[in-house]
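Deliverable D5.2: sample structural annotation.
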Amino acid sequence: MTALTFQLARNAFGKLVLTDAEGATHVGITPVRAFPMSAPDDGVSLVSPDGHELAWIDRLSTLPAPVRQLLDEELAVREFSPTVLAIQEVSTFSTPSTWTVDTDRGRTQFVLKSEDDIRRLGNGRLLISSGQGLYFSVKDVAALDKHSKKLLERFL
């Protein structure tokens, strides 16, 4: 485990507070993964509210448990991405279209603005960006039911 050059805590308002090696405090820190899909444990930047990087973490697994827990909690909120289990309906086969899907969080609808909003990630995985800015993941296209695959094929 590497020695930290900063301290991390949550204030009374729930915001992350970073105290750097010089003792300066920075409130409202946002952790940002460098490679959220391909290497989620590698490369996390701690960014100030004005967008400046204040600290870099090579590997989350090297952090002390309390710091790791704070970052995991914050990243989970930031990276909320429901998993699509089935596609029930698509309003039209041109875009924009409204999709009705079953996810691991329940049934929902979203607007697909363009076919370009469906990204292939490899190994049968997809990332779908909704018109509302939320990302939906498909863990394995081959594991979807026949109806879902048929609807999805029109957009791939």
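Annotation notes: Helices lie at 65-78, 146-153. The longest strand covers residues 53-59.
The annotation will be released with the project's public dataset once the embargo ends.
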